[in-house]
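lol forgot to send this yesterday, sorry. struct tokens for the thing we talked abt
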């Protein structure tokens, strides 16, 4: 039997202890770790669980990678629909403004123009040299509409990150896994050059050097081992310890998507997800919020709060989850009711966490928008 870690808010465990914990199935030991994780989370967040109101902009479904589990990208799209057009995007902004949304979540396949001639043609027709340049344009328009962009643009160079930083409140890139084994032939990342962990860690580290409030996370259930889960969490911890830029880490469960290669693969069990959340709360510094998407664990919200999560991420009452389209968002009021019964309360945040709302971490344009209070914030949180 493995021993439970010391119960203090700064508790941390060794890689060996972490691995032992993932391997055990003794309920009493798991319960001791769960209680410890809950105490750590409560020490850092009291009983607050955060979320953002967002609207989703799937800028393009074309991608140069082909991950076996992907439910987002399309091998081809109708001519002229390679990207959402500026007009389509403006309509989304108008709806976002009307609904008092704070976050515009911009997602895309990675650098589609390097693989799809149709993407290159579309960009050229609209006067853009690259997907990143179009992303900048969209994020800037969001800013002009009083909305804050959170951009998930895949792996980016230092210069691309620096460029997008000027018009974004925060950015994100899932590490998914530190395992290069999953890039080998027959594995889920074998034809996804951007899923090579070194490339992803480079982006995450460069974001830290540039002081970009950043979201990362791991994906569970795509063939990784327990060792690789622990190594992935430690890699994120180490990056944050150097730069302090990770505002949250998402622990995301793989869900099978029809038409993907892994359509018939089993998702990870909720028991395993709970253990990984517990473990993550022990490994990661307390200031990194741990998030699980609520639409992927529907009906089990209380269980994951007790395991140490403190954030639900973006929830949209307007647009679907384009990454997991068969899993609809919960109603915010229902989520509030569920967690209040457990003694917790919901709090709406911006895409940038309060501790990063300063000119060290934000461009002047983003900082000025937030501090002008047009987004109805107080102490960095939204107060409607
Ligand atoms: S998961 Fe992301 S990187 Fe992989 S194919 Fe889908 S959109 Fe592209």
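and heres what i got for the seq, position by position
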């Amino acid at each position: 039997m493995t021993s439970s870690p010391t119960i203090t808010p700064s508790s941390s465990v060794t890689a060996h202890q972490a691995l032992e914990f993932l391997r055990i199935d003794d309920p009493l030991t798991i319960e001791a770790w769960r209680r410890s994780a809950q105490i750590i989370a409560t020490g850092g967040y009291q009983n607050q669980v955060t979320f953002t109101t967002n609207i989703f902009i799937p800028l393009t479904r074309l991608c140069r990678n082909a991950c076996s589990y992907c439910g987002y990208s399309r091998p081809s799209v109708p001519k002229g629909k390679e990207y959402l057009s500026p007009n389509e995007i403006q309509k989304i902004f108008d709806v976002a403004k009307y609904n008092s949304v704070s976050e515009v979540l911009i997602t895309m396949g990675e650098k589609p123009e390097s693989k799809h001639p149709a993407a290159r043609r579309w960009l050229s027709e609209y006067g853009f040299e690259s997907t990143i340049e179009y992303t900048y344009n969209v994020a800037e328009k969001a800013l002009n509409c009083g909305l804050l962009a959170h951009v998930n643009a895949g792996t980016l160079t230092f210069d691309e990150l620096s460029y997008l930083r000027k018009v974004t409140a925060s950015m994100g890139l899932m590490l998914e896994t530190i395992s290069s084994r999953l890039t080998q032939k027959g594995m889920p990342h074998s034809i996804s050059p951007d899923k090579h962990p070194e490339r992803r860690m480079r982006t995450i580290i460069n974001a830290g050097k540039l002081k970009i409030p950043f979201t990362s996370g791991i994906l569970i259930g795509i063939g990784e081992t327990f060792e690789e889960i622990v190594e992935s969490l430690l890699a994120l911890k180490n990056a944050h310890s150097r730069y302090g830029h990770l505002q949250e880490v998402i622990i995301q469960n793989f869900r099978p998507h029809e038409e993907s290669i892994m359509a018939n693969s089993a998702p990870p069990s909720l028991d395993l997800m709970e253990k990984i959340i517990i473990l993550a709360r022990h490994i990661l510094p307390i200031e990194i919020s741990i998030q699980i998407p609520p639409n992927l664990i529907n009906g089990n919200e209380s269980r994951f709060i007790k395991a140490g999560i403190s954030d639900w991420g973006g929830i949209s009452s307007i647009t679907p989850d384009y990454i997991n389209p068969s899993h609809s968002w919960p109603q915010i009021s229902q989520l509030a009711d569920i967690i209040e019964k457990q003694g917790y309360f919901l709090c709406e945040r911006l895409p940038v966490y309060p501790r990063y709302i300063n000119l060290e971490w934000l461009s002047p344009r983003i900082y000025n928008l937030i501090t002008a209070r047009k987004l109805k914030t107080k102490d960095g949180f939204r107060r409607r």
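Residues 4-10 have pLDDT under 50 and may be disordered. anyway ping me if u want another try
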